[in-house]
Amino acid sequence: xxxxxxxxxxxxxxxxxxxxxxxxxxxxxxxxxxxxxxxxxxxxxxxxxxxxxxxxxxxxxxxxxxxxxxxxxxxxxxxxxxxxxxxxxxxxxxxxxxxxxxxxxxxxxxxxxxxxxxxxxxxxxxxxxxxxxxxxxxxxxxxxxxxxxxxxxxxxxxxxxxxxxxxxxxxxxxxxxxxxxxxxxxxxxxxxxxxxxxxxxxxxxxxxxxxxxxxxxxxxxxxxxxxxxxxxxxxxx
Length: 237
Description:
Blueprint: H1 3-39, H2 50-54, H3 70-74, H4 88-96, E1 98-102, E2 110-116, E3 123-127, E4 135-139, H5 143-148, H6 156-163, E5 169-173, H7 174-180, H8 196-209, H9 216-226
Antiparallel strand pairs: 1-2, 2-3, 4-5
């Protein structure tokens, strides 16, 4: 074998050895990364975040729905609990609608307006009348959910408070609200994914304010949502 051929053969062998070594390092690196990934703890929220507050909530199974009655337990809808001359529904319409117009001669009743619906991401033109139900006021923590996670033991005054608390209320698309019903975060989340972090944060804020508990499935669903936004702030009450 000529010197040139021998040198070419040695070069190929060296290149093969280098490629084998590189492949081994890549495989080892992937194994290490996977191993580390398996041990990575779930995201932790900073102080004051919804995720951090979630960890302070009691986790236990839901109580029975037995005895629940919306009106007798939480009061009729809607009341003027803050004595400002407007019922809670109109207060929330004024808060959440853009360019709202009041009924002539009325300082409270909303006649029309535009809602950027947080649940669907759609824009809804609200007009009082036959289609008033196109925009409804949703209890972020449904009242039946509140009942089964602690509110059954409250006096009626506290139940009326949560039923009319602006923290627990949001103007929303009527059909979306009806579709949600009394379901919790493990069973229903807004179609509009851009609002899910804020929605779950609102639920956590209400649960924390009123010392309601969360079920294991509810807790896990909330945590799953907030893992993508661990700094989502806890809404102020």
